[in-house]
What we know:
Strand order of the largest sheet: 2-1-3
Strand content: 25-35%
Radius of gyration: 11 Å
Distance between the termini: 11 Å
Number of helices: 2
Number of strands: 3
Shape: globular
Order of helices and strands: EHEHE
Helix content: 25-40%
CATH architecture: 2-Layer Sandwich
Structural class: alpha+beta
Amino acid sequence: xxxxxxxxxxxxxxxxxxxxxxxxxxxxxxxxxxxxxxxxxxxxxxxxxxxxxxxxxxxx
Length: 60
């Protein structure tokens, strides 16, 4: 399975509690923090919900 690197590029201030919790569950704490995950459907769904806050790259 492919791996993706998710990086927080925008602040979660003024966003809904649900979006803040989604970002935290992805393992992102502050701007510029990154986490590597398997590209599973649940992870891709969480990334889609906060796509305006994160940058996604494929890791080889």
